[in-house]
Specification:
It is built from two helices and twelve strands; from the N terminus they run αββββββαββββββ. The chain is mostly beta strands and 220 residues long. The chain has a single domain, classed as Lipoprotein localisation LolA/LolB/LppX (outer membrane lipoprotein receptor (LolB), chain A). It has a twelve-stranded mixed β-sheet with strand order 7-8-9-10-11-1-2-3-4-5-6-12. The protein is globular. The chain starts with 34 loop residues before the first helix and ends with a strand. The N terminus is likely disordered.
Length: 220
């Protein structure tokens, strides 16, 4: 599980050259794409959900090398999450602390939710804190694969990413998320099999290191 600097969704808008003395026309979404309706659909869907379970595939491209893993993501409003990878890696938040477990290294880490520099922490916004107007300022859209592909640019350069591209299905589910980081690394998440409001045990969001595993407490 790759670490990056920290929080969600954005992309590059092509600037139209202005004729001297004339105003630059505002960018217009392509035909058949209702940007505001699409964004509101995503906000309404995820802000109303209490729990979520979805299968994911994660691909990280860094310095010309690509690494892929997959698994199941569990989210509980607000801030609780569990990324359970097929490789055995775990990434768990109890809304206060984040625990990362690397079985191949027999090592685990504990850090504050606010201080986490992992992209997965901001992804918890999918439950209860989706607000595109607050976080993003510019959008580029087009129809794709039966849904809407939206590339958005964050309003602040303090975010760890420079642009985010996401594919929204007709039912307002998030099918794919591409995050371009400040260091030009690219993280791509694809989602499928989403389940709204499944019954999730609190134990899913608790972490006890296995016997013999070293815990590095970064909160101290």
């Amino acid at each position: 599980m790759a670490k990056i600097g920290i929080g969600f969704c954005t992309a590059v808008l092509t600037l139209i050259s202005a004729i001297p003395g004339e105003a630059v026309p505002a960018p217009v979404p392509p035909p058949n794409v209702d940007l505001q309706r699409t964004l509101k659909g995503v906000e309404d869907r995820y802000n109303k959900i209490q729990t979520l379970q979805v299968k994911f595939t994660e691909t990280l491209t860094s310095r010309g090398r690509t690494k892929t893993d997959s698994g199941t993501l569990y989210l509980h409003k607000k801030g609780k999450m569990r990324w359970e990878y097929a490789s055995g890696i775990l990434f768990i938040s109890d809304a206060k602390f984040i625990y990362s477990y690397y079985p191949d290294e027999h090592r685990a880490e504990k850090m504050s939710m606010k201080e986490s520099d992992d992209m997965k922490a901001p992804l918890a916004f999918l439950l209860g804190d989706v607000n595109f107007d607050r976080d993003f300022g510019e959008y580029h859209t087009k129809p794709q694969d039966g849904g809407v592909l939206i590339t958005a640019l964050p309003k602040s350069d303090k975010f760890p990413y420079t642009e985010v591209t996401f594919l929204v299905a007709p039912d307002s589910t998030m099918r794919r998320l591409e995050v371009k980081l400040q260091n030009n690394d690219l993280m791509v998440f694809t989602f499928e099999g989403e389940k709204k409001n499944p019954l999730l045990s609190d134990a899913l969001f608790q972490f006890t290191p296995p016997k013999g595993v070293e815990m590095d407490d970064l909160t101290k």
